[in-house]
Design goal:
By secondary structure, this protein is α+β, with helices and mostly antiparallel strands. It has a single domain, classed as 3-Layer(aba) Sandwich (Aminopeptidase). It is built from six helices and eight strands. It has an eight-stranded mixed beta sheet, with helices on both faces. A hairpin with a 2-residue loop joins strand 1 and strand 2. The longest helix is centred in the middle third of the chain and has 16 residues. It is globular. The chain starts with 8 loop residues before the first strand and ends with a helix.
């Protein structure tokens, strides 16, 4: 597994690279500026049960240490999204499972100031090609709140199949929220996801 990580993936000015301790200032600035915009979509920790201490939000350094540990264990690929070298978001390949399943899931967010430029479809395509090509995974899932139209458009444009609803799937913004499951298997993109995205872009360029 470690042969596939760390890795940097690039398509023109858009890239994915491992999250680093020295990204702290940039990551915190982007997160702080986008707090209200991202609140509806970011996973949260449910309230502690009676008698239990409240869960503390990890510090940036604790988060990076956890992500690095998961990456070295082969369970996760924790990327930051870059545009012209600037940190503009995050994409995580998580839940990596081998054996008879060979699957993973992808989650992402982007700075509102950079939304709508085709950055997220590009990095999803880069990560899918890495998972299917270099890593040999079979299936990728993306779970999205039904209300999150921009995120749903990303995966629908790329050809992910909507498989159904997972009721009360993740705790987000103070409650258990339903999510739609989108999925794709390697045989559904024989040409590669990035090649598919470039073909779509050439016919329907983003504004």
């Amino acid at each position: 597994m470690n042969a596939f990580w760390p890795v940097e993936l690039q398509d023109g000015p858009i890239g994915l690279r491992p999250i680093r301790m020295r990204d702290q200032r940039s990551w915190q600035e982007v997160s702080r500026r986008n707090r209200d915009w991202l609140r509806r979509w970011e996973a949260t920790v449910p309230p502690a049960r009676a008698g239990q201490p409240p869960a503390l939000r990890p510090t940036y350094r604790q988060m990076v240490r956890f992500l690095r540990g998961e990456a070295h264990a082969g369970r996760m690929l924790p990327f930051v999204v870059t545009y012209q070298g600037r940190l503009v978001g995050q994409l995580t390949v998580g839940g990596i499972t081998w054996g008879s399943m060979c699957s993973a899931n992808i989650g992402y967010w982007i700075d509102e100031a950079y939304a709508g430029r085709g950055i997220i479809p590009t990095v999803v395509a880069l990560s899918v090609d890495h998972c299917f090509g270099a890593m040999g995974l079979h299936r990728i899932e993306v779970c999205i709140r039904p209300e999150n139209s921009p995120s749903r458009r990303v995966v629908e444009k790329l050809g992910f199949r909507e498989e159904g609803l997972r009721p009360r799937y993740l705790h987000i913004d103070g409650g258990w929220r339903d999510h739609l499951v989108y999925a794709l298997t390697v045989d559904e993109v024989p040409e590669g996801m990035l090649a598919r995205w470039h073909r779509i872009e050439s016919h329907h360029p983003h504004k």
